Amino acid sequence: MAFNHLPAGVHDALVPLSVTPVTHSVPMAENHRSDRSPTGPVSRVDPGAVLGRLASGPSRASRITHTEHVPPRAGRHAVWPDRIRAEVIAAVQRAGIEHPWAHQARAAEHALDGESVVVSTGTASGKSLAYLVPVLSSLLDGSEAPNGRGATTLYLSPTKALAADQCRSVKELSHPLGNSVRPAVYDGDTPFEEREWIRQYANYVLTNPDMLHRGILPSHPRWSSFLKALKYVVIDECHTYRGVFGSHVAQVLRRLRRLCARYGSSPVFLLASATAAEPAVAARRLTGLPVVEIADDASPRGELVFALWEPPLTDLQGEKGAPVRRTATAETADLLTDLAVQGIRSVAFVRSRRGAELISVIAQERLAEVDRSLAGRVAAYRGGYLPEERRALEQALHSGELLGLSATTALELGIDVSGLDAVLISGYPGTRASLWQQAGRAGRSGQGALAVLVARDDPLDTYLVHHPEALFDRPVESTVLDPDNPYVLAPHLCAAAAEIPLTEEDLTLFGPEAEGLLPQLEAARLLRRRTKAWHWTRRERAADLTDIRGEGGRPVQVVEAGTGRLLGTVDAGSAHTSVHEGAVHLHQGRTYLVRSLDLEDSVALVEQASPSYSTVARDTTAISVLETETEIPWGDGRLCYGSVEVTNQVVSFLRRRLITGEVLGETKLDLPPRTLRTRAVWWTVTEDQLDEARINPEILGGALHAAEHASIGLLPLFATCDRWDIGGVSIPLHPDTLLPTVFVYDGHPGGAGFAERAFHTARAWLTATREAIASCECEAGCPSCIQSPKCGNGNDPLHKRGAVRLLSVLLRGAAEGEGESLLEAADGEDEGPMGADSAADGESARA
């Protein structure tokens, strides 16, 4: 029997919610007018005092496991390069910025010299101005050309919301420059009647990689005058381009560079990144060009109080009688309520769409009990909303109409929400880079700010709130991407050939794997070689061969059955687990039941309902080894890395009562299996090692299963991944290895590099896994150490002590020095893994 744990699609929102009212007293918010301008004087907030009030309720203080005080920092000014147009400097000064910070001036200098540059500094450090000043100066020069568009700029944002926000900023800053600067957003929400004007006249086009891939590059003849004059390509929040998505974007950028060369331009790339390890290395891999790195942050910073918050244990019992903590969702909702009552402008970041909706609903109910007028000043913001809904929420937050927002990462990226006082982070967001990016949303006007990380009941979050050095004493991670992944590269070669026939000279642009893929594409009758070039042979659009966000097909539309109204969309990859027949679906605070899921037409029909339960999908998995690429001995056991084939099927769902978490029943589902060819890391143990660990056949399955769950939970600390990017399988006797084996694999076709990173950091990663299990205070296993809410086998069997003994023996056999460049890991039972840095010095080509 295989014990499975797949990429999690269900988070805290689906486990029991405590609905204890907020009983402790806090100062009431002023019922100030919603049309008050947020640009007026901002009252200073003492973050320590705000945290003190949050912790003043019954048993609240004991929930804070650590408080980090990040001191304020003075800024260092410089002067703009003398090549910047005087009109641009005057416009910047008119906006209230007399002198640039030193890193802004350096970035502008490199841009003017024609050197691609990445600015990797903290949140609110003025990265946007660093690239905007040279861009505006070049556009002003270009406006003097005979056609009025002698220079253009393309701005790429990972989200529509960020592009819209940046467009507003550009318009405000460039207003004194008149019609010389003509910014416009070009995305899926842009009305068709505006698109032709943008192609012909806009000189600063803001879009996203999806639109560049599907809309602009395939229609490049219509963009010829824009591409011919393209001087700068701005890539904002470039640290988000990682994993499979980042690998796709890297190939889209290579296609862009190829078309620019065809039209006679060679744009300079200006990249903005949150603080990251080796940003120039990641930027070079993303763009394919040499990139200068600017990472010395010269901007001032206000005081930041950062608290780690662990929800308390409840009287409830989970699966197998395990103790259950109050959910991060319920805890965050209460904290957001308290902050709103105090008049503290806050954003709560949540991992899942459903979690964002639930926190908003709970907070609104709590606020209505205190003051009905406050209930409407908290809302949810997530992907999947219709364009008009997103725009209205963004405007309400900017205007100050909203006091609190429960948001997914759709709002995380760079939106300039000035005047926020506090950020709540419901669950570790997967990387330290994302954690600091979210925390930096508060205090954006230079004032003090509060950030609170509320731990979920899972191994990684529990580990982090009790090991604050893992968050505060370590550099952020490297960005991992692999443009040479054949599953990524092949469809982009087809798209490039459809844009302009591919020649042998083009192949170096697309990397060393391109030449070997062409015969396969010819054999599949996707490309045909004629004379010296390869041509696209099909009638359909080549750009439609791939979804660059790796979501595996067109999104599933969520439609209200009675009215036919489109509520939103769900990506195809999560449709089986989130909108299966009988699933509870939340949208804008309303609850719906899924009546049917039509996979062929990609439509889920829903009807409004008020069930007293949530739903959790369960699935099973089989895995086979296709090729072992690398293996090293760990004592008698082996640590391996290679290619695997994973077959997954959602087989049922549980109904859990919202208040208690009680399982009301399990309903079988008839959904087709899905097959994935990907990369995996796996380890085996021998009979002698099992004897040494005192693992008998009765507990072997539970020990392996427990080690697998916990290792998946801890991997995001060592690889730049989210927990749902990876999956796992454990088998007491695997038919390919003929030994007890634990697999952890990338949840994307062709791999994403996370398993490779796991292989190279395995000693540190599994040492941390062993300590996380051993240090948990539960008796036999709980969600904080070895249980998973997504387990296809209902967390049965699991053996906590067996997993600790098994991992201890495995690690004693690890090759001497394996992973020590990453972490001085302990071989003994009592040493923990936190003695050194877990981030690799270099970055594997990878995910």
From TrEMBL:
Gene Ontology MF terms: helicase activity
Domain Helicase ATP-binding: 108-294
CDD domains from the UniProt entry: DEXHc_Hrq1-like, SF2_C_Hrq
KW Nucleotide-binding (keyword) present: yes
Domain Helicase C-terminal span(s) in chain numbering: 335-487
Region span, Disordered: 55-76, 820-847
Classification via InterPro entries: DEAD/DEAH_box_helicase_dom, Helicase_ATP-bd, Helicase_C-like, Helicase_put_actinobac, HRQ1_WHD, MZB, P-loop_NTPase
Acidic residues: bias regions: 820-832
Residues spanning the membrane: none
Pfam family, one: DEAD
Keyword annotations: ATP-binding, Helicase, Hydrolase, Nucleotide-binding
Protein name: DEAD/DEAH box helicase
Phylogenetic placement of the source organism: Bacteria, Bacillati, Actinomycetota, Actinomycetes, Kitasatosporales
